[in-house]
User: Which sequence fits this backbone?
């Protein structure tokens, strides 16, 4: 019998058997794939669709795919999207209403969730899911999110390398996956023996692991996996001091640096869409032309838009500076008051996918010093 | 530290109600009475005998116009009259314009009640100062009903209501009745008026210096435009009221009403869930800032 904490060796060729087991159980398997020159999550039917031999090079405002010298399946970090797009879809129908003799009748749309298996979930992304769990739980729990989340099988991948915009070590969310997974994989690439250390994280994971009849992992593989994660942790591209963030952000609402950032910020909303924890949404009414039927949809929204704070005929946050201040202050500080944790997991997406390369690990230290010049705390390695 | 406002009631607490918190319940309009040229008061009954959830003064509903959308609207009726809902709506955007045009027989949607209301239990035994600006009287009216129903639980009751012009005054007939009462002082002032107006002219804060209350044992409930509430809070403090005794009802853009859409954030507060009624002591620093 397999149990939580058990470790096995999964050979490279056994990955397809793992996929088979997932498909047999009715899961839609979602994993990173090469799509439009980026690693984007999507459905895979076979192991050949995984980005074998690809890696990514990330910097502020820069993302490039490059070939690796090996055939690693997970030799890269996070891409422009996150599992958020499945658990909290960018566009979701909430209900349909039809005109009746008695007024109208509402039919709920979100009764059952699909059965997702997420393959390749990083530690920071599991942390992001736990953060969104707190947003969409509680007395008004979102039924769509709950159905998809509880049904989702999480197959984590331990990061074998750190991206240039990664700072999960600072945010204490990674790189090691320690909880919230069903199975975890650590890719071991030494010599010609391409294999994975497979660790069981739940009963559901144990049942799948058992069906694969795998050899128990030797101590040297467990040790190699641990060393790999130590090297990843030591190679973080960014750092962010976190001990004073709550007081710093809440204490700096009138800092001149907000205006300086606003000179560069395009209010394009990319950071909020790429962020795995940003949860803001709006609702849309989609009526039929004849007025007999209407659908209500929920769509991602962003605190960077002017209309986000519309009140009457005006908006509360009219300036770009006030919108950037809201986003960063919420993410790093008021999130702690609201949900008991930071809203940032250190995945670096907002840095990589900012078209002008605004980097919160550079901006925050400026708020701290009170000076307009940039400190070196958050700058990337050469 | 002042205590929390009155507790919220989960919207889907009744059995058999919708499980998805976004789903509205159909209500039929039974009356649409005009208050001002752009504001109406709607009375609604649930379609098909659904129980109307009880609410606390200061709470709000999401009010849905079929095919148009939803807006957050406070209850403005008497919380003790069961089986109906009363909402006062001003036509500002497309949703509120559609709501003001609802006619008796039309069916709209309601979900709620949401948020924290006025902390009436904290007011027991104290002088009560109610300051309303414009449409801000609507969420305070249920509080007035509640206070008048239990009038001997409170000390002096002083109400100051300001509107832009005489034709913008809500609940005109009712106010005339209240002004006749001896257990209540109800002052009305307008920002500007022509010669047909015999009442006070001036912003609402101009009536506060001679409002009759004992600052050491009074509590103030304020609702109106944010700038009016800010100056009212300052004027009340100038009268010696502590900031913990001042409660404000805040307004922000709202889409969900249960702290999930992010729109109504005001610093760490979700106005929909933590408010709309909040103690001034918790938000005074934020109110001093621009574009929060």
Assistant:
């Amino acid at each position: 019998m397999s149990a939580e904490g058990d470790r096995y060796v999964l050979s490279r060729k056994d990955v397809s058997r793992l996929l088979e087991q997932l498909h047999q159980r009715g899961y839609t398997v979602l994993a990173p794939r090469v799509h439009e020159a980026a690693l984007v999550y999507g459905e895979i039917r076979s192991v050949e669709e995984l980005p074998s031999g690809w890696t990514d090079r990330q910097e502020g405002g820069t993302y490039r795919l490059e070939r690796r010298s090996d055939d690693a399946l997970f030799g890269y970090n996070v891409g422009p999207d996150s599992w958020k797009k499945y658990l909290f879809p960018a566009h979701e129908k909430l209900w349909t209403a039809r005109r009746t003799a008695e007024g109208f009748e509402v039919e709920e749309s979100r009764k059952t969730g699909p059965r997702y298996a997420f393959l390749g979930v990083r530690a920071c992304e599991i942390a992001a899911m736990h953060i969104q769990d707190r947003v969409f739980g509680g007395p008004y729990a979102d039924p769509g999110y709950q159905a998809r989340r509880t049904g989702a099988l999480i197959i984590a991948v331990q990061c074998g390398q750190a991206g240039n915009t990664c700072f999960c070590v600072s945010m204490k969310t990674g790189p090691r996956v320690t909880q919230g997974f069903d199975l975890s994989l650590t890719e071991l690439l030494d010599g010609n023996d391409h294999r994975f250390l497979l660790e069981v994280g739940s009963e559901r994971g144990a049942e799948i692991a058992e069906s694969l009849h795998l050899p128990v992992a030797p101590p040297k593989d467990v040790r190699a996996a641990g060393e790999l994660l130590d090297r990843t942790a030591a190679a973080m591209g960014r750092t962010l001091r976190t001990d004073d963030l709550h007081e710093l952000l809440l204490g700096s609402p009138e800092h001149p640096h907000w205006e300086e950032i606003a000179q560069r910020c395009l209010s394009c909303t990319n950071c909020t869409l790429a962020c795995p924890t940003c949860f803001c949404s709006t609702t849309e009414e989609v009526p039929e032309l004849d007025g007999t039927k209407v659908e209500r949809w929920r769509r991602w929204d962003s605190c960077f838009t002017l209309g986000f704070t519309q009140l009457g005929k005006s908006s509360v946050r009219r300036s770009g500076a006030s919108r950037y201040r809201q986003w960063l202050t919420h993410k790093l500080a008021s999130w702690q008051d609201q949900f008991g944790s930071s809203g940032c997991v250190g995945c670096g997406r907002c840095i990589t996918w900012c078209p002008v390369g605004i980097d919160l690990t550079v901006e925050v230290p400026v708020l701290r010093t009170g000076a307009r010049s940039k400190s070196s705390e958050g700058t990337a390695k050469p | 530290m002042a205590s929390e406002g009155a507790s919220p009631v989960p919207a889907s607490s009744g059995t058999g109600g919708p499980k998805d918190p976004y789903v509205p319940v159909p209500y039929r309009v039974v009356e649409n009475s005009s208050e001002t040229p752009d504001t109406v008061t709607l009375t609604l009954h649930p379609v098909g005998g659904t129980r109307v959830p009880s609410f606390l003064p200061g709470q709000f509903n999401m009010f849905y116009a079929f095919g148009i959308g939803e807006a957050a609207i406070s209850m403005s009726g008497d919380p003790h009259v069961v089986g109906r809902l009363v909402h006062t709506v001003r036509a500002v955007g497309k949703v509120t314009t559609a709501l003001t045009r609802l006619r008796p027989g039309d069916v709209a949607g309601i979900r709620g009640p949401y948020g924290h209301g006025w902390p009436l239990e904290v007011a027991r035994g104290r002088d009560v100062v109610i300051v309303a600006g414009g449409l801000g009287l609507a969420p305070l009216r249920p509080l007035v009903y509640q206070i008048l129903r239990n009038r001997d639980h409170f000390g002096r009751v002083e109400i100051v209501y300001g509107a832009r012009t005489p034709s913008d005054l809500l609940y005109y007939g009712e106010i005339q009745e209240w002004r006749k009462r001896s257990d209540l002082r109800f002052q009305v002032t307008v920002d500007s008026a022509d010669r047909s107006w015999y009442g006070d002219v001036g912003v609402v804060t101009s009536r506060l210096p001679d409002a009759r209350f004992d600052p050491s044992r009074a509590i103030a409930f304020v609702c109106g435009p944010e700038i009016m509430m800010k100056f009212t809070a300052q004027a009340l403090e100038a009268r010696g009221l502590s900031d913990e005794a001042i409660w404000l009802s805040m307004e922000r853009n709202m889409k969900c009403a249960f702290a999930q859409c992010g729109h109504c954030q005001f610093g760490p507060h979700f106005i929909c869930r933590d408010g709309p009624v909040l103690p001034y002591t918790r938000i005074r620093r934020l109110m001093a800032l621009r574009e929060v």
Remarks:
- The two ends of chain B are 23 Å apart (CA to CA).
